[in-house]
Amino acid sequence: MLYSKEKSFLFIHIPKTAGTSIRSVLAPYSGKSGVLNYIGRRLEKYPVFCFKTGLSIKRTYDSHTTYERLENILPQAELNRIFKFCVVRNPYDRAYSFYLHVLSHPTHNLYKLIESYGSFGGMLQNLEVVGEPTQKSYIINLQADISVDFIGKFESLNDDFNAVCKKLGIPYELPKKNTRKHKDYRDAYDEQNWKYIAEYYSEDFDAFGYDKDLLK
To answer: What DSSP letter does each residue of the chain carry, written as one string?
Structure first.
């Protein structure tokens, strides 16, 4: 996640949704005095101290912190004040991108597990073991309600992020980072294994308006 008191925004970074590119644009506005930069598990014992004293936290601890965790870190009045946003992605596309990302990074904590499945289809049959959370789980509050003000989509990223930058008064320029070219994600699925994604990430399809029927 990325938070700026100065620009009044909170970006919830859901994995494999172009968050690295977005953070590269927003980072200059979240590293000044009075700003908490990246917040994660290791900072939870110090949040109130950091917020009240206006310390600048520049080290990345956990860029994928959830909104629910932030409710225990930032004051509710501050969460209500700032503009909160995220980007989501078609679950079929995101799952395949996640698979390729892990296999291209041997130091990833899930590399050995996913490699052991032997194929993308093998991973899909073991989604509960892999345990990659739903996208919705990153942006709900303690009452399980979606708590961001704007949900952009990976499929319309340029337009959606441009709208965010205009609202925040930030010059718009979105570089491509942490990306790789790969075949159409639809070609990675067969007539059966797409159903694992449709079931496991059902709440993402429903919450964000994606079509579960991959074969349409």
So the answer is: -EEETTTTEEEE--TTSSHHHHHHHHGGGSSSTT-B----GGGTTSHHHHHHHT--B-S-S-TT--HHHHTTTS-HHHHHHSEEEEEE--HHHHHHHHHHHHHT-TTSTTHHHHHHT-SHHHHHTTHHHH-PPPSGGGSB-TTS-B--SEEEEGGGHHHHHHHHHHHHT--------S------GGGG--TTTHHHHHHHTHHHHHHHT--S-TT-
pLDDT band at 5 (very low <50, low <70, confident <90, very high): confident
How far does Cα 188 stand from its chain's mean position?
22
Per-residue pLDDT tens digits for 165-216: 999 999 887 766 555 667 799 999 998 899 999 999 999 999 999 999 976 5
